[in-house]
């Protein structure tokens, strides 16, 4: 690994905090603590940050209008969402405030709208308002027939779920946190003053452990003697439609939720596509990220009903993500002073929106339990490469191309990603470990052709300059090893 | 910058148009292509068989691509490679991005020749995991012939049309062992000779009436579930190539607001290959995805004549537009509009399409099929008998177009 701070399997001094799980919650906690001069080690089994539940979701920056009033989720979601909105703007994380329309398709659902509006008010969303049938179809003329009315939630936004954890991790690294990727935690030995986190690449010593392991948070919890909860992975399948479908909708189109799930929604993405999903299906396997025929069929039916024009456009991608559900409805965040352990679990589907709120809360709880925070103002966030569709990207930026022609060489045509951006990603403080990592940093290969035009070029660029050299045969290696 | 004609796409259609435009004295011709070399898809189709209809000789893909790129340059067309049209700034004005910067190009006429691509696995909604090792023929050929990659292991080809056999040859060349060609059709839709060669020389069978139900493998591809008549079986493989199932690259056409034909999904074009916006033409596999390169090139040459005439005579007078549509099991017809200039009845018949023919596609196999052309219940023509196959061109003579009534309803083409 070329990641700074990841050198050495064994450290002479224990870190203040080891954070297990480099998803959006773990990276947020790492940056919040590291900014307060807490020495942190961020550990993840994957080869990159944000590769679990973080990367495959509906990419919505929620207001929390539909959470349980008074719950921890409600509080942290509202706080986190406000913090992230501001952070995103300064860090160049793509966000669009599209607003959402929660649509009633029958009398029963219409009857529920006032209660949902009341709940939203109690959650601090005071700008929620009813929208009549006429106004609804005026605003969303491509909506399928049969909608009776809606609630407008103006604050609901869409966000880039890839840049967000990358920005957090980049900032954490910049202020001294260490990142250990491809590092699977196999056990934890707890002593009087420190923990020894045993991993596939060595032992990490630390005073505190923060468990932000998402789908594996119950496994980590048991390593620390807990047996309070079990994670039930819930699969959500999603379909991403071609950018040509983007004009079909203005806002996020939400269904009236049921007790079990928020239902199938249609939402724009910050990359200019349209998202349809998710399904909600409990699965046994924590790595089961396959799409299914039944799931995709269900989504197509829902899509045809909500936005008929959608299903005549091409599908760009389909994928499945796993939410880490628990038996409890609320977040499970507990700080155990005696064991020097913070458990941050049950962040089912709102982790992205609430991440900074969760991090702030966890830092506060840790401080109360005796962890020393510097109490200083936060530094500015790092400025991340902008990969949204709404703003100006390098290919359209004349001044940028004039300064460096590499930003005028478009490599991925569907997503208009330039050679300059790929080189930047490869040279960044947290470079991609594989092509999927490069996708999440640049959008390369994510478009409608799925590599028909550019996959060979991108692979060659990556292999030529990436941190992981392409495998060589022994003969080739021998040849290149000879002095020139 | 300003030019008389802007050609978008330096594949066979765009380059053939550029050559013809220069020959006809149509003025300055600027050809832009987003790829870093001109030539289009034939550049990475390393097999032979290119050029029969247009150049009257048979070349390999790369040689054919080079021939056209050289001919266009020799004819005096300016070719800008590595240059992407990122949007429209007026009906015949575009924004370009290249290493030279962001520029605007304005033209008297525009030819869209952006070609087509294969529908990837995602767009076909094939469920399962998302491992590495799944690709289209386009990606495969670029990896093997342009980047020089070697591919090993067991490969499965999805599709059994011309390009599927080409993918099979590419895989074999790259070092892979091809297990089979899999098609949901009852049999392959290519030449019998190709299927025989596949079976005898490469020992590759065609598994017909078979669909890919699921892709398996979390990191690298491990195999697929195949379904034949309700029986599902797992077949281990390391490479899965989705071939054919072409979609025109219509992004720019749609961004321009051109009328789109629901059958071809490309821009609606009349027999001179002009679109619904005056002065904007479209040719090649953007309007008939996918035909062979020589047919695309001849279409480009035909569009050039229309463009030259439009530039010479100025905007066409008010004209009547008659849609030409198909009924199932026919999928599409190209061109798909007749444009009759001047007052009805006294008008000259519409100009003939490229090669004097319409191109059609069927979704079914049928022997001795005859095609009828109808308008308002009146039969304008009946074609000769065909052996129809999915994915293969049906050619319909355009001799009947003078008989279409400009004041009548749409022209409907259907099985007789």
Characterise this structure:
The complex is a heterodimer of chains A (484) and B (416). Chain A has helices at residues 24-34, 72-91, 107-122, 133-139, 163-174, 217-223, 293-306, 351-368, 398-403, 419-426, 435-442, 455-465, 474-481, and strands spanning 15-20, 40-43, 60-61, 95-96, 100-104, 129-131, 149-153, 157-159, 178-180, 185-190, 195-199, 202-211, 232-241, 252-255, 265-268, 274-277, 281-282, 315-325, 332-336, 341-345, 410-412, 417-418. Chain A is globular, with a radius of gyration of 23 Å. Chain A is built from 13 helices and 22 strands. By secondary structure, chain A is α+β, with helices and mostly antiparallel strands. Chain B is α/β, with parallel strands linked by helices. Chain B folds into 3 domains: 1-116 and 246-316, 3-Layer(bba) Sandwich (FAD/NAD(P)-binding domain), CATH 3.50.50; 120-244, 3-Layer(bba) Sandwich (FAD/NAD(P)-binding domain), CATH 3.50.50; 320-416, no CATH class. Chain B has helices at 12-23, 61-74, 137-146, 162-174, 192-201, 251-255, 293-313, and strands spanning 2-8, 29-32, 48-50, 59-60, 78-80, 84-90, 93-98, 101-112, 116-118, 134-136, 154-158, 177-182, 206-207, 210-216, 223-228, 231-236, 239-242, 246-248, 280-282, 319-326, 330-334, 337-341, 357-362, 366-369, 371-375, 378-382, 386-388, 394-397, 411-415. In chain B, the strands form 8 sheets. In chain B, strands 1, 2, 5, 6, 7, 8 and 19 form a 7-stranded mixed sheet that branches. In chain B, strands 10-17-11-12-13 form a 5-stranded parallel sheet. In chain B, helix 5 (192-201) links the parallel strand 12 (177-182) and strand 13 (206-207). In chain B, helix 1 (12-23) packs parallel to helix 2 (61-74). Classes of the chains: A alpha+beta (484), B alpha/beta (416). The interface between A and B is large, with 42 and 42 residues.
């Amino acid at each position: 690994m070329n990641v700074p701070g990841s050198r050495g399997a064994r450290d002479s001094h224990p870190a203040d905090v080891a954070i297990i799980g480099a998803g959006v919650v773990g990276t947020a906690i790492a940056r919040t603590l590291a900014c307060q001069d807490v020495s942190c080690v961020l550990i993840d089994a994957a080869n990159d940050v944000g590769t679990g539940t973080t990367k495959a979701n509906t990419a919505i920056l929620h207001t929390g209008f539909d959470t349980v009033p008074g719950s921890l989720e409600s509080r942290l979601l509202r706080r986190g969402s406000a913090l992230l909105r501001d952070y995103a703007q300064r860090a160049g994380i793509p966000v669009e405030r599209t607003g959402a329309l929660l649509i009633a398709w029958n009398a029963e659902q219409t009857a529920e709208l006032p209660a949902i509006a009341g709940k939203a008010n109690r959650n601090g969303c005071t700008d929620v308002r009813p929208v009549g049938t006429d106004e609804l179809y005026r605003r969303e003329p491509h909506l399928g027939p049969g909608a009776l009315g809606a609630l407008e939630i103006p604050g609901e936004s869409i966000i880039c779920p890839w840049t967000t954890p990358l920005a957090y991790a980049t900032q954490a690294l910049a202020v001294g946190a260490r990142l250990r990727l491809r590092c699977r935690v196999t056990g934890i030995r707890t002593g009087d003053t420190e923990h020894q986190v045993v991993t596939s690449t060595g032992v990490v010593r630390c005073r505190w452990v923060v468990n932000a392991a998402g789908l594996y948070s119950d496994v980590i919890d048991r390593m620390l003697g807990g047996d309070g909860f079990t994670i039930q992975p819930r699969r959500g399948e999603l379909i991403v439609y071609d950018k040509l479908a983007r004009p079909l909708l203005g806002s996020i189109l939400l269904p009236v939720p049921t007790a079990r799930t928020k239902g199938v929604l249609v939402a724009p993405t910050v990359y200019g596509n349209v998202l349809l999903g998710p399904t909600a299906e409990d699965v046994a396997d924590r790595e089961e990220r396959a799409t299914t025929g039944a799931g995709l069929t269900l989504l197509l039916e829902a899509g045809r009903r909500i936005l008929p024009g959608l299903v005549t456009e091409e599908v760009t991608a389909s994928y499945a993500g796993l939410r880490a559900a628990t038996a409890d409805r609320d977040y499970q965040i507990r700080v155990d002073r005696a064991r020097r352990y913070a458990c941050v679990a049950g962040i089912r589907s709102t982790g992205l929106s609430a991440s900074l709120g969760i991090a702030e809360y966890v830092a506060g709880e840790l401080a109360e339990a005796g962890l020393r925070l510097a109490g200083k103002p936060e530094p500015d966030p790092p400025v991340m490469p902008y990969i949204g569709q709404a703003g100006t990207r390098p290919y359209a930026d004349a001044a940028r191309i004039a300064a460096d022609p590499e930003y005028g060489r478009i490599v991925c045509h569907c997503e208009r990603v330039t050679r300059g951006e790929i080189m930047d990603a490869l040279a960044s403080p947290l470079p991609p470990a594989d092509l999927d990592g490069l996708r999440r940093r640049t959008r390369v290969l994510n478009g409608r052709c799925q590599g028909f035009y550019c996959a060979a070029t991108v692979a060659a660029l990556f292999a030529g300059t990436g941190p992981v050299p392409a495998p060589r045969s022994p003969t080739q290696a021998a040849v290149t090893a000879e002095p020139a | 910058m300003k030019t008389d004609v802007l050609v978008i796409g330096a594949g066979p259609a765009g380059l053939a148009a550029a050559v013809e435009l220069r020959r006809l004295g149509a003025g300055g011709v600027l050809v832009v292509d987003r790829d870093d070399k001109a030539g289009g898809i034939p550049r990475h189709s390393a097999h032979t068989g290119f050029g029969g209809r247009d150049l009257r000789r048979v070349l390999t893909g790369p040689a054919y691509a080079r021939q056209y790129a050289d001919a266009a340059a020799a004819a005096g067309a300016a070719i800008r490679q590595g240059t992407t049209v990122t949007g429209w700034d007026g009906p015949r004005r575009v924004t370009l991005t290249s290493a030279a910067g962001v520029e605007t190009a304005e033209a008297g006429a525009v030819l869209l020749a952006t070609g087509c691509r294969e529908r990837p696995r995602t767009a076909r909604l094939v469920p399962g995991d998302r491992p590495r090792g799944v690709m289209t023929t386009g990606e495969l050929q670029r990896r093997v012939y342009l980047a020089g990659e070697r591919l090993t292991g067991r490969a499965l080809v999805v599709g059994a049309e011309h390009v599927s056999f080409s993918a099979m040859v590419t895989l074999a060349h790259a070092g892979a062992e091809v297990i089979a060609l899999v098609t949901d059709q009852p049999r392959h839709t290519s030449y019998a000779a190709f299927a025989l060669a596949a079976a005898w020389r490469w020992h590759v069978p065609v598994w017909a009436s078979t669909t890919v139900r699921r892709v398996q493998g979390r990191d690298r591809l491990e195999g697929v579930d195949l379904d034949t008549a309700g029986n599902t079986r797992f077949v281990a493989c390391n490479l899965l190539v989705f071939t054919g199932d072409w979609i025109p690259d219509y992004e720019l056409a749609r961004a321009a607001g051109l009328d789109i034909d629901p059958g071809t999904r490309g821009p609606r074009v009349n027999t001179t290959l002009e679109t619904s916006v005056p002065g904007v033409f479209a040719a090649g596999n953007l309007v008939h995805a996918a035909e062979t390169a020589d047919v695309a090139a001849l279409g480009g040459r035909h569009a050039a004549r229309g463009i030259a005439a439009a530039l010479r005579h100025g905007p066409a007078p008010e004209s009547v537009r008659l849609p030409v549509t198909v009924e199932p099991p026919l999928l599409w017809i190209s061109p798909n509009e007749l444009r009759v200039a001047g007052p009805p009845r006294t008008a000259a018949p519409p100009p003939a399409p490229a090669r004097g023919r319409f191109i059609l596609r069927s979704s079914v196999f049928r022997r001795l099929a005859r095609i009828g052309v109808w308008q308002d219940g009146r039969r304008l023509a009946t074609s000769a008998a065909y052996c129809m196959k999915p994915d293969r061109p049906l050619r319909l003579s355009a001799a009947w177009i003078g008989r279409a009534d400009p004041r009548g309803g749409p022209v409907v083409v259907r099985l007789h």
